[in-house]
Design brief:
Elements: E1 14-21, H1 27-37, H2 46-56, H3 62-67, E2 75-80, E3 83-88, H4 97-104, E4 109-115, H5 122-133, E5 138-143, H6 152-163, E6 166-169, E7 171-174, E8 182-185, E9 190-193, E10 209-211, H7 223-239, H8 245-249, E11 253-258, H9 267-277, E12 284-288, E13 291-295, E14 303-311, E15 320-328, E16 330-332, E17 335-339, E18 344-347, E19 351-353, E20 358-360, E21 363-365, E22 369-374, E23 383-385, E24 390-391, E25 396-398, E26 402-408, H10 414-427, E27 431-435, E28 441-445, H11 448-462, E29 466-470, E30 475-480, H12 483-492, E31 497-499, E32 505-509, H13 512-521, E33 526-528, E34 530-532
Parallel strand pairs: 1-3, 1-4, 4-5, 5-11, 6-11
Antiparallel strand pairs: 2-3, 7-8, 8-9, 9-10, 12-13, 12-24, 14-15, 14-23, 15-22, 16-21, 17-18, 17-23, 19-20, 25-34, 26-28, 26-29, 27-28, 27-31, 30-32, 30-33, 31-32
Helix pairs in contact: 1-9, 10-11
The structure holds guanosine-5',3'-tetraphosphate (G4P).
Residues 21, 23-29, 92, 143-144, 146-147, 260-263 line the site of guanosine-5',3'-tetraphosphate.
Pfam families: EF-G_D2, GTP_EFTU, RF3_C
Family: Belongs to the TRAFAC class translation factor GTPase superfamily. Classic translation factor GTPase family. PrfC subfamily.
InterPro entries: EF-G-like_DII, EFG_III/V, G_TR_CS, P-loop_NTPase, PrfC, RF3_C, RF3_dom_3_sf, Small_GTP-bd
């Protein structure tokens, strides 16, 4: 990692962000073009190619390969304008939304990619809700302007209405599809010119600028198009609040950029926008010995939390990589860190993830994401610090929507099964519930694909043949309340009670209706869809 030429501390150069979108809006393409724009990769195709390389390394990732989806989230670091960007990649498939949600806990901002022909789609909505839990600032990129798009005013209204976010266009498009001529930079009144097919540029270069009120504009736009663009930009200014950085940082306002990721258009400008406005690491509230403490990114003690654990690519070794988001301090290779439960580990080979490579890090700072190889010591949601006294909260578990009973072909291997299921639940792949009555484990997942991954991994890594058969439950809720109230509830629902991997009580419900009925009948018990890892 290069050292900083200015006096600003290293952590202040970090910009950790995630890209969120509904599948097919163009997240992968934008990721790649952003990396190209920043000069972090040189050839298109490397993001996908890297995924493919990774896939050949692991048996269980066969599923990814077969279905052409990316299951594992990773991190790509690149440098631009003296800033170090950590792009947190999130799985595109909706079955892995839980993984995505957790990844968002490690990001300080997010880019929301919308398909210009579709606007806000269901999955975008869900992801923005998660960003909202932590008020992460959101930058909007309206993609695929080279195709027929919705009216830009309708797109902005869609954002305001569906997401309850103020939208401020930083640019205004001139046409779309075949008539797409470029976007007006509202701050400078320059048209950023879209090149026609066959004139593709290097996305590393900024777009050509033509002053809207200059004489050269006639070469790009007809008089009618220029008028239409002026009017459009006027309407936008009247309808939308001006950009206000504070309001953006608080998560109330999203600046909107337009472009075409596939054609590399508008991406360089988006990157400059990111460098101008997205925030670096902010203080995080955590607890120390049960008391709330503010963890400052410039603080002395090294502290962070695990937001993802990935099994090692090599199935012959049981080691895993824990993705740790650092929140304070200057980490040095070889440092000893402790979890809040007192487990200690020496971090001798921390990994930083550059766009083309992974390297062993000698140092890392608040805002960085570091891969920590370990043999199962670290779990999703664990806090790591020098003192072992800091505890971060807020890594969510979501109520599973699919519940399956794990049945072994060979009942003598029950102990092995317990170990395998526990270990995968610790990684955060699936959730594990042990019913109060009966011996079978219930496995919960947010999407069906997670169950398939689980079956493959249990077979490949533990040599166990397991059937995940239908369970008579549809959903689960974590329950909370005074002890006597919980006991009264549990007494009435003996066959539907279970505990999760941390021993917390869970109600396995037959239907959503049963949940609302129970909520009415037991007003002193709260039923939670999400649980923060403790
Ligand atoms: P995702 O990660 O959000 O799921 O989307 P991805 O980038 O894979 O893009 C989905 C499809 O949309 C791809 O086409 C991609 O080429 C296309 N696309 C992305 N950005 C743009 C854009 O700015 N303009 C246009 N016209 N298309 C865009 P595909 O046919 O599904 O895949 P491929 O065969 O091109 O890889």
């Amino acid at each position: 990692m290069t050292s900083n030429s200015t006096d600003a501390p290293e952590w202040a150069r970090r910009r950790s962000f995630a890209i969120i979108s509904h599948p097919d809006a163009g997240k992968t393409t934008l990721t790649e073009t952003l990396l190209l724009s920043a000069g972090a990769i040189r050839l298109a195709g490397q993001v996908r190619a890297r995924g493919e390389n990774r896939r050949t390394q692991s048996d269980w990732m066969k599923i990814e390969q077969e279905r052409g989806i990316s299951v594992s989230a990773s991190v790509m670091t690149f440098e631009h304008r003296g800033l170090l960007f950590n792009l947190l990649d999130t799985p595109g498939h909706e079955d892995f939304s839980e993984d995505t949600y957790r990844t968002l806990t490690a990001a300080d901002s997010a880019i929301m990619v919308l398909d210009a022909a579709k606007g806000v789609e269901p999955r975008t909505l869900k992801l923005v809700e998660v960003c909202r839990l932590r008020d992460i600032p959101i930058v909007t990129f309206i993609n695929k302007m080279d195709r027929e798009a919705l009216d830009p005013v309708d797109l902005l209204e869609d954002i305001q209405d569906k997401l309850a976010l103020d939208a401020t266009p930083m640019q205004w498009p001139s046409g779309s599809g075949k008539r797409f001529k470029g976007v007006l930079d509202i701050a400078t009144n320059d048209l950023l010119r879209f090149q026609k097919p066959g004139e593709d540029r290097d996305p590393h270069e900024p777009a050509e600028r033509v002053a809207l009120d200059g004489s050269a504009i006639g070469e790009v736009l007809s008089a009618e198009e220029a008028d239409e663009l002026r009017e459009g930009a006027e309407v936008a200014k009247e309808l939308c609040p001006p950009f206000n950085r504070q309001s953006f940082l608080e998560g109330h306002l999203t600046p909107v950029f337009f472009g075409s990721a596939l054609r590399g258009f508008g991406v360089r400008e988006l990157l400059e926008g990111l460098a101008d406005i997205i925030p670096g690491p902010a203080p995080v509230t955590a607890s120390s010995n049960g008391n709330p403490v503010e963890i400052e990114p410039g603080g002395k003690e090294v502290a962070g939390f695990v937001f993802k654990v990935q099994a090692n690519m090599d199935p012959n070794h049981r080691d895993r990589v824990a993705f740790v988001r650092l929140c304070s301090g200057r980490f040095k290779r070889g440092m000893k860190l402790k979890t809040e439960a007192g487990k200690q580990l020496t971090v001798s080979s921390p990994i930083l993830f550059f766009a083309q490579d992974r390297e062993i890090a000698d140092e890392a700072f608040a805002g960085d994401v570091m891969g920590v190889p370990n043999h199962g010591t670290l779990r999703v949601g664990d806090s790591l610090s020098e003192s072992g006294k800091i505890r971060f909260t807020g890594i969510p578990n979501f109520a599973p929507e699919i519940l399956r009973r794990a049945r072994l072909a060979d009942p003598l291997k029950a102990k092995h099964l317990k170990k395998a299921l526990e270990s995968l639940a610790e990684e955060g792949v699936t959730q594990l519930f042990r019913p109060t009555l009966g011996g079978d484990f219930i496995v919960g997942a947010v999407g069906a694909l997670q169950i398939d991954v689980m079956r493959e991994r249990v077979a490949a890594e533990y040599g166990l043949e397991v059937d995940f058969e239908a369970a008579p439950y549809e959903t689960a809720r974590w329950i909370e309340g005074d002890r006597d109230k919980i006991e009264a509830f549990a007494d009435r629902h003996k066959s539907a009670m279970a505990v999760d991997i941390n021993g917390d009580p869970v109600f396995l419900a037959k239907s959503a209706w049963e949940v609302s009925y129970s909520e009415e009948k037991f007003p002193d018990v709260s039923f939670h869809r999400a649980k923060e890892r403790s």
